[in-house]
Design goal:
Layout (H helix, E strand, L loop, with lengths): L1 H18 L11 H16 L2 E10 L4 E10 L4 E6 L4 E5 L5 E4 L7 E4 L2 H18 L9 E6 L5 E3 L7 E2 L1 H4 L12 H7 L8 H12 L11 E7 L2 H6 L8 E8 L9 E8 L12 E7 L3 E6 L6 E4 L5 E3 L3
Parallel strand pairs: 3-7, 4-8, 7-9
Antiparallel strand pairs: 1-2, 2-3, 4-5, 5-6, 10-14, 11-12, 11-16, 12-13, 14-15
């Protein structure tokens, strides 16, 4: 009998893990989730590297320019804006997009011209790369706006840089050297392939550039919550000092006792933001939580540490 009970509990845990996760029930339809989904699909199709949630320093405004994602392949750099819009979209005379209906039904939201915004982001990114020693050739950088939401509706004819849901759903994995159909016009360009050294340096720069903190929901790390013993153990993990956090579970299938190993490394400002120090470790309860301020929401969100694999903290 005990064998049947244990097996039933194991199956229940697995079902909840893979098919019903309360922790992310409201995140699955968020802009952040759509963004990571687009990045994953572009990497799968083109074999390049997608950098998500960049916060590139803008020398002209002394602030940071948020960029949804940058896709890097041997032939080009594509700055992509992801608009997870649901509803009927019209375009005004100044280029703004007005979205009516959608998940908020009676709401109307106005978005500044997304393509103009992405072009501005590309200009900031190009200047940032030049400051760090990489000058892109003409044709090696382009801009796209992707609309991945199936509830997007419009009667407007968008320029070729805007990839509507109807076009996006037909994107299929193809050979990295073969671009056919709408894919050729959507993400390919006439730019020459970059030299290996430039390509490697470009990936290093973007890999060490400032980003939003979480890979679950784009947001800014605020603090840890939990038992006093655990928050005291985690008190040394601060944005100004720590570069990266990774979480490891110490139990099988979620059975008690459940403890988590939190691994972190201190920031090394001498190596362009990458961590060069040894990894530290603390062990805390799985009930401990991490608090984020999401990029696309005014409300803070708390997540179980057990549901987060890693966090990269921007300086």
């Amino acid at each position: 009998m005990w064998v049947e009970i244990i097996c039933a509990l194991a199956i229940y845990k697995l079902v909840r893990l893979f098919f019903y996760n309360d922790e992310f029930s409201d995140v699955e339809t968020s802009d952040s989730t759509a963004l990571f989904s687009v990045a994953h699909r572009l990497e799968k199709v083109y074999g390049g590297k997608a950098y998500v949630g960049l916060r590139i320093p803008d020398a002209d405004t002394s602030s940071r320019q948020d960029i949804d994602l940058v896709l890097v392949t041997k032939g080009q750099v594509v700055v992509v804006g992801v608009k997870n819009l649901s509803g009927i979209v019209t375009v005004t005379s100044d280029g703004s997009w007005v979205c009516e209906g959608g998940k908020h039904h009676h709401s109307t939201q106005t978005h500044p011209d997304p393509l103009a915004e992405v072009k501005k982001q590309a200009s900031v990114l190009e200047s940032y790369l030049e400051q760090r020693g990489v000058t892109l050739l003409e044709g090696n950088i382009s801009c796209k706006v992707v609309i991945p939401n199936p509830n997007f509706r419009t009667m407007h004819a968008f320029p070729s840089e805007v990839i509507t849901y109807e076009e996006w759903q037909h994107l299929k994995p193809v050979s990295r050297n073969i671009l056919s159909g709408w894919v050729k016009g959507a993400f390919s360009s006439a730019g020459k392939e970059m030299q290996d050294s430039s390509h490697q340096k470009l990936n290093f720069i973007l890999g060490s550039a400032p980003v939003w903190d979480s890979k679950i929901v784009l947001g800014e790390f605020l603090e840890f919550k939990g038992k006093e013993e655990d928050t005291l153990a985690l008190r040394h993990i601060k944005r100004s000092k720590v570069d990266r956090i990774s979480i490891q579970q110490t139990s099988m299938l979620g059975f008690a006792p459940t403890r988590l190993q939190v691994l972190y490394s201190y920031r090394d400002y001498r190596s362009e933001g990458s961590s060069g120090s040894e990894t530290k470790e603390v062990t805390v309860r799985s009930s401990s939580e991490v608090v984020f301020q999401p990029r696309d929401s005014g409300k803070i969100k708390k997540f179980k540490l057990s549901s987060i694999l890693s966090v990269s903290l921007s300086a």
